[in-house]
Write a structure and sequence with these properties.
eight-stranded mixed beta sheet; alpha/beta; seven-stranded mixed beta sheet
């Protein structure tokens, strides 16, 4: 036992070393699991909404209904910018890129409208260009235009792009950033008029959800800020922003007197709140002059859309469809409220130490304590890990990964429990090996689990009993009288095939008697619907016999045929015998009748005969009433049935006709209507000529009764 415990500890240490190496290597699936853990924290503890100077002017469904489908004429947007600027917006950021000329400009309309005279076209050409009107409005306001990075230079807008001034504190940050070939920017007149330019690019994580947003990116050797950072820069006076870098990468971005901590790639974790509808103001209300000036004055205003048709939505930890403009707004709220989520450099070291403590604690404790106590160990450790991670997230805004220690803890515990279970199984195998030559396998298994059952005794319980015998076995034995080993081999193959089917249907083998198999159901373990199970086993045995006969076709000159008797009722079951030797078996009238039913198969030409109680407890099968027979040793006659198939046969049209005709025949016999009985018998013979032995019995009975009539209603016994 002691050696087994040390073996378990050795295996646990090996597993611990593997998990430690995996965490250090940090492959993609582990990183993805870590991010999912961080998602759970955001979902469980979202940021509380605060009164921060952020507003979203929403191009919503109402605005589209009022001013037409998107894109709107730039004159409408110019009016929107002038109204926001007049209301005192500190900065106006567009989550939109104006990369193409306005198709509604008068000059462009003059070329596309049909039926317009030359004078009308000339008048349109003299009107101001919509893009110029918009550019003029932008020039007079603190507007930050959005732009997006592209991976291929061919997709970028032509000409140089504008990069705001940036100070580099420490090493060059460019090697640590994601790089792009160029940017998709706004039309030149509009682009030139803007006070600032910010990136709209948002990078989702492995699972497609947004958790981190880059504050800066590298484009063609230059640093470009995200939209939120650029809006902060413009709102605080338009001075340069700074990027701090050390050997490990970027540590922070400084703008407007605020230092924003980042990961080494310049990304910041957004502390998401639940979707903040209170941030939204309809663009229609702004253009109609109905917006509360307090919603705009001194605010950093984003212009974007939540309209479903414009499809600017992304998945976040708190929402599966958050408008992209709100992600920028929530990032800005995170910066303004200083609700930064930190993933400090020492986090990996702390997580490795946590993994070591949890894993080693399990390795020491689990092999020594009982199973009921050992179960508490991983539950306690996982609870402490989850609680600790939640505490640091809520109180310190720290992201500490406990998902991997949890997985490793559960895996190490599972391994230790498996090894303990394997050791117990080995002990039980020793018991089985010791007794398997003397007792049935089912009983051996029970004794291995509970040796106290190794005593004489039993109980009455409802059971289903089966007897299966090879028909015509005497003739087969005669053929093999000069080769007994071959006969033994044949019988063993037959018994092996039948035993497998019985065991597959939850039956218990009682004993083998030459070529006969005795089995029962519902003992020693409960078997629901045991009568149905036994009948299904009998049908499966017939199918298995067909396969066996195909295999034996070249070895014997005749097919094996079997008879099966099945009966259901109360039996006495238990360990019976002497103190020196006993067996687990069944006794009772139910057993005796099952044996007699099997012997009737030859006379009635049916392979499976069931007792009446079996048919009652196994409805839905193709069972056909055969007769009412007197059984030796029983005072009461027994009604018997032939099992011709399963549920599919029972509902077939031919069997339904057969069952009806057979029932009419028996009813006529009991009523003394011999001519009617004979007519129904002929109908049944046409449907199933293979049941001729059964029909022959009743044909003779009808002929005898017609010649020497008996009283109507008298039961005719075979």
């Amino acid at each position: 036992m002691r050696g087994a415990r040390w073996q378990a500890r050795g295996a646990g240490l090996a597993a611990f070393a593997v998990f430690l190496a995996l965490r250090i290597a940090d492959p993609g699936p582990i990183a993805e699991t870590r991010l999912r853990g961080f998602e759970v924290l955001q979902q469980a503890f979202p940021r509380a909404s605060a009164d921060l100077p952020v507003t979203i002017v929403d191009i919503d469904e109402a605005s589209l209904a009022a001013f037409g489908q998107w894109p709107w004429p730039r004159t409408v947007l110019a009016d929107l910018v002038r109204r926001l600027s007049g209301l005192g917006a500190a900065a106006i950021g567009f989550d939109v890129i104006f990369a193409e000329a306005d198709r509604m400009s008068p000059a462009r309309l003059s070329e596309s409208l049909t039926g317009l005279g030359e004078a009308g076209r000339a008048d349109l050409r003299l009107m101001p260009d919509n893009d110029a009107v918009f550019a003029e409005a932008v020039r007079g306001a603190p507007v930050v235009l959005g732009q997006s990075v592209v991976s291929e230079a061919a997709d970028a807008s032509p000409g140089p792009f504008r990069a705001p001034p940036v100070a580099k504190i420490g090493a060059d940050p460019l090697p640590h950033l994601r790089h792009a070939a160029g940017v998709l920017r706004n039309l030149e007149p509009i682009d030139t008029a803007a006070a600032g330019h910010g990136l709209l690019t948002i990078e989702p994580e492995f699972d497609g959800r947004v958790q981190r947003v880059p504050l800066v990116m590298g484009v063609a050797g230059k640093l470009l800020p995200t939209l939120s950072i650029e809006m902060l820069r413009i709102a605080t006076g338009g001075n340069a922003y700074a990027v701090r870098t050390d050997r490990a990468g970027i540590t922070a971005v400084q703008v407007g007197g605020s230092i924003v901590p980042t990961d080494p790639r310049g990304r910041v974790w957004v502390r998401f709140a639940e979707p903040e509808r209170h941030l939204y103001v309809s663009a229609k209300d702004v253009l109609d002059g109905r917006v509360d000036p307090a919603r705009i004055r001194g605010k950093l205003v984003f212009v974007g859309t939540s309209a479903t048709g414009l499809k600017d939505v992304k998945a976040t930890p708190v929402s599966n469809a958050m408008p992209g403009v709100e992600i920028h707004a929530q990032l800005l709220e995170t910066l303004l409220g200083r609700t930064f989520i930190h993933r400090p450099n020492w986090a990996i070291g702390a997580e490795l130490v946590t993994l070591a403590i949890a894993g080693l604690a399990l390795i020491v404790v689990v092999p020594w304590v009982p199973a009921s106590v050992s179960l508490a160990a991983p539950v306690l450790l996982i609870g402490l890990l989850g609680g600790g991670s939640s505490y640091f997230f809520v109180r310190q805004s720290l992201l500490l990964d406990v998902s991997f220690p949890m997985v490793a803890t559960a895996a190490i515990y599972t391994l230790l429990v498996y090894l303990s279970h394997s050791r117990e199984q080995a002990d039980r195998r020793r018991i089985r090996n010791a007794f398997s030559r003397y007792l049935s396998p089912t009983l051996v298994a029970q004794l291995a689990a509970d040796p106290s059952r190794l005593q004489l005794g039993g109980a009455m319980r409802p059971m289903t009993v089966m007897f299966c015998d090879i028909r015509g076995f005497t003739g087969i034995s005669e053929r093999y009288k000069s080769d007994p080993p071959a006969l033994t081999h044949l019988i063993n193959r037959f018994l092996t095939a039948m035993t497998g089917v019985i065991l597959d249907h939850q039956g218990t083998i009682d004993k083998y008697m030459g070529d006969c198999v005795m089995a029962f159901w519902n003992a020693p373990l409960d078997v629901p619907a045991h009568a149905s199970r036994a009948c299904e086993a009998a049908l499966a045995m017939m199918r298995e016999l067909e396969h066996l006969n195909e295999t034996l076709a070249g070895e014997i000159d005749a097919k094996l045929r079997i008879g099966i008797g099945i009966n259901t009722g109360d039996c006495f079951v238990g360990n019976m015998g002497a103190d020196q030797r006993f067996d687990y078996s069944v006794l009772g009238d139910t057993v005796n009748l099952a044996s007699r039913l099997e012997s009737q198969c030859r006379d009635y030409g049916v392979s499976i005969i069931l007792g009446e109680e079996t048919v009652r407890q196994a409805p839905g099968l193709a069972a056909l009433e055969l007769d009412v027979v007197a059984v030796r040793g029983r005072s009461e006659p027994a009604r018997i049935y032939g099992l011709l198939g399963g549920g599919d046969v029972a509902v077939s049209a031919d069997f339904v006709r057969l069952r009806r005709g057979n029932a009419d025949m028996h009813s006529a016999l009991r009523g003394g209507a011999w001519a009617e009985a004979a007519a129904n018998l002929d109908v049944c013979r046409e449907l199933r000529p293979d049941l001729e032995p059964y029909f022959a019995i009743h044909r003779q009975r009808i002929a005898a009764a017609a010649a020497a009539p008996v009283a109507a209603g008298q039961i005719m016994l075979k």
